[in-house]
Design goal:
6 strands; Pyruvate-ferredoxin Oxidoreductase, domain 3; about 200 residues; alpha/beta; single chain
């Protein structure tokens, strides 16, 4: 993506590691010499509510907010969240979806049904849609919580972030005891997109 600014919308639910993900991406952008702005919007994060983080980087960034129709990439940690934020994606944008289902409160209370085939519906609307079982891959790496870093691997491959810079950012941000698992998760995610593209 060679545009002036790269806009990434990271969406998920509380506890999925969206904030750590935004910190890693922002760190990579800083290392590459870009101006970076990050905006975090917490819904009812502690109850599995929406958590949205916006990362914008480029030569000069004046606002941390991504407007509707301007996101280059939506990185969705959960399927409903991908659909919920779709109107923020630009016409030729990309959606990366973790094939994970987290029932929102209305579904848990029986007031609503979880929509079927939601990622297929997103894929029908967005040509560049990647659906991945990031949680399963993270589990194979040794910790399901590293699903977010699997997604970072896919994202970095999609938008051309250098491997060594992302690994450097992961080393700077991820706590020591979780580092090895996260590095492996990153490499697995990166490999995954290489195979599907």
């Amino acid at each position: 993506m060679q545009s002036q600014t790269t806009d990434i919308l990271i969406v998920g639910v509380g506890g999925q590691g969206t904030l750590l993900t935004s910190r890693i991406i922002a760190q990579v952008a800083v290392q590459l010499g870009y101006d970076v702005k990050v905006s975090e919007v917490h819904g009812m994060a502690q109850r599995g509510g929406s958590v949205v983080t916006q990362v914008r980087y480029g030569k000069k960034i004046y606002s941390p907010i991504i407007k509707k129709g301007e996101a280059d990439v939506i990185l969705a940690f959960e399927k409903i969240e991908a659909a919920r934020w779709l109107d923020y994606l630009k016409a030729d944008g990309m959606v990366i979806i973790n094939n994970e289902r987290v029932n929102p409160l209305p579904v848990m209370s029986g007031k609503a049904k979880y929509p079927e085939d939601i990622h297929e519906k997103v894929a029908a609307l967005v040509e560049k849609t990647v659906v991945v079982d990031a949680t399963d891959i993270a589990a194979r790496c040794g910790n399901v919580k590293a699903a977010n870093v699997v997604l970072v691997g896919i994202l970095s491959q999609a938008i051309g972030l250098p491997v060594e810079e992302v690994e450097k950012a992961i080393r700077a941000i991820v706590p020591g005891k979780a580092l090895e698992v996260n590095q492996e998760a990153f490499r697995e995610g990166r490999k995954l997109l290489e195979q599907t593209v």
